[in-house]
Amino acid sequence: MPEPFEMTVGEAARAIRRGELTPVGLVESLLARVDAREESLLAWVYLDRETLLSEAEGKTAEARSGNPLGPLHGVPIGLKDIYYTAGIPTTACSKVYADFVPEFDGTSVRLLKEAGAIIMGKTMTTEFACMDPSPTFNPWDAACTPGGSSSGSAVSVAARMCPAALGSQTVGSVLRPASYNGVVGFKPSFGRISRHGVVPVSWTLDTVGWMCRSVEDVALMLQAMAGYDPEDMVSRSEPATNYVGALNANTPPRIGVLRDFFYDNADGETTAHTDEVLRRLAEAGAEVAEVAMPESINTAIEDQQIIMAVEAGAFHQPMHERQAEDYQPRLRGLIERGLSTPSVEYSRAMERRQRFVTDMRRLANRPGVLLTPTTPQPAQPDRTNTGNPMFQGPWTSCGLPTITLPSGRAGSGLPLGIQLAGPYLGEGELLAAAAWCERALGVSLAPPL
Amino acid sequence: MPEPFEMTVGEAARAIRRGELTPVGLVESLLARVDAREESLLAWVYLDRETLLSEAEGKTAEARSGNPLGPLHGVPIGLKDIYYTAGIPTTACSKVYADFVPEFDGTSVRLLKEAGAIIMGKTMTTEFACMDPSPTFNPWDAACTPGGSSSGSAVSVAARMCPAALGSQTVGSVLRPASYNGVVGFKPSFGRISRHGVVPVSWTLDTVGWMCRSVEDVALMLQAMAGYDPEDMVSRSEPATNYVGALNANTPPRIGVLRDFFYDNADGETTAHTDEVLRRLAEAGAEVAEVAMPESINTAIEDQQIIMAVEAGAFHQPMHERQAEDYQPRLRGLIERGLSTPSVEYSRAMERRQRFVTDMRRLANRPGVLLTPTTPQPAQPDRTNTGNPMFQGPWTSCGLPTITLPSGRAGSGLPLGIQLAGPYLGEGELLAAAAWCERALGVSLAPPL
Fold it and tell me: Left if phi > 0, otherwise alpha if psi is -120 to 50, otherwise beta: which for A425?
């Protein structure tokens, strides 16, 4: 049996259910890991050992009671510090929210708890999930960016301080840091998981997502959190399917490769690596074909920036009026750009985005999944920014589900990843293909101690 | 057999198919009607008798050929002058578009033609389908408004100058004028019919709709025009169902009455009339229950104004920069309001509207249909405005399908109507209920000559 801190969500949950591991044992193992790694990584904002251990004791007692257990029983999960936690500060790592203590749990947090999970703590985020870098370090190389905005979630999972952590993606804030740190990252379809009780960036873009270390864990957590919530005005009522069951379909997937746009904007090492991954997947039986991006990609990146700026401006305007100087410069600039954008420009950007959404959803409705490199290059030795989100942005903008899998390492030693996208609300199909690719590639990365 | 000009679309199409009527006979009868009524009504902007008769001759020959005929074969249909017609001016009744001659037919126009319809001509609209009254007269009382913006379409159908005409609804531009003139008016779900080749007002609100004189005609025309069109970025891909077949379900519907908001804002004669209609429907077997409007209605009317202003501003900005003085005052004011609205205000209105959409679609998902008076009062003796669209606006804003049926006459002699709404993309269910109500009420109105 691996050390408890090395276990995935699925492994830990099974071990607990079988009585081979107790939630207390798991939490103690993870806390020891936090003791060893946190000082040099700065992944956590809030972690209350006492409460955590007492929670774990309760879960341990329940596990011994013989009563039926939730699918995530006793497994600790981290939360990016923008998720509302009842009675626990939710600061968005900002002076502006320094004193905010929510009175309720976000819907996704509540659902994780209902599935038996323990909340491990709150992880570091860039300020309000935007672009100013957080102090967090990349466990592969302290000189490199860990990415953002869900930096603490990615690093805590990569460094085995917790098996999974929620992040959020407005442009590229889940899959990019996941890939920079060598873990699995997932963003479901827009509307699949409620955002009620998540501090917003941009109401037409924000999507709940998470980091973990296996496709099975993605399915387990999606199963727990997917569902309609009238409290989120974009929540979809299409029923969730059996995501965990979908992983058993061991059929080689049809893979559409998007070379234009993605290869055009990636470095040579990344494109060569992606080609090598494709060769291995084809060898294992996948049917690989070239697919073209729609023309509407040409305005999609800039339009997303306009939309994000205006919607962030709409949320932050009252705070910005009172305490503009409390914001870090990039976020302040974003808010101010939004406040000064003419409404007709925002409307036109929304209209062009709608065209892009239509085009991309049609593209993703072909049988199988779409594949791209996850990022234009691996994490760079530059901590003044969080890296380039342009390979995530289009997917967030059009609401399609995406997953990144670690697929190898660059010459610098930093992780590389592949990004898969599936049909709108077709998470089952996407995860089945991702599980097949995970098995075919057999890549699991752990940063050096 | 009734005079050809008195026939509905369905009656005329059947008579042509049976050889009891020729398209030429139908067109001649309608043109005689135009000769008798147009001078005092001003419903038409463009009507080319020669082309029309030669079209009708072609359709007559086809009908005699024994080849299979389209469901609308030989039936003339009018078009609000915002529908693109290849080679025929499309002026939006504005100086700004005075010289615009499209090179292609709008998708809906093309589909009507493919179903065998003849384009009768272009009908009067308020300028760019907005609020400045058109010169059109109400055939029931020349002192009263005919409503707007689809004034010519409503009046041409009410006065039996054509059996059906396309309009469009951004706030209340189809069902209101339909009801003011005593005819059937229909607006499908947002996304059900392509708007490609329709001069826009507001891209998140504009909906193709039409006037006719029976629920059967609504179904026939919907069947011809419903469908996915990649050219319209909001087009939905959910398949159209058998709308004509749905009318045969002769089950008494469940009717949810929305008294709050609608009764609160209607005059006493209108509420008393609606109660009387409900009594008759219940007597005929309908199950009537009270239903409450969601709280989000409180901001919906004002938010729709903000959204319409900004989106109209986005479309008209370049023309407004060149020739602001060519616009009529209400439209110019709307554009200028849009251009000066802060983007964050528009974004917040869109966000609140999304909440309203969610609430209303949930409401409409109850079994059966929702019922309200169509307008707060019948058409008023005031031609300086086009009447109050507030009973349509909420349905346009949330994209639900609606229909108005003539249900009686006010003390003033002007028509009254009831408005029914169905589930999102549930036109079949809505039309089945409407056909039942039409039979139960047995009201058909014709204005005095």
Answer: left
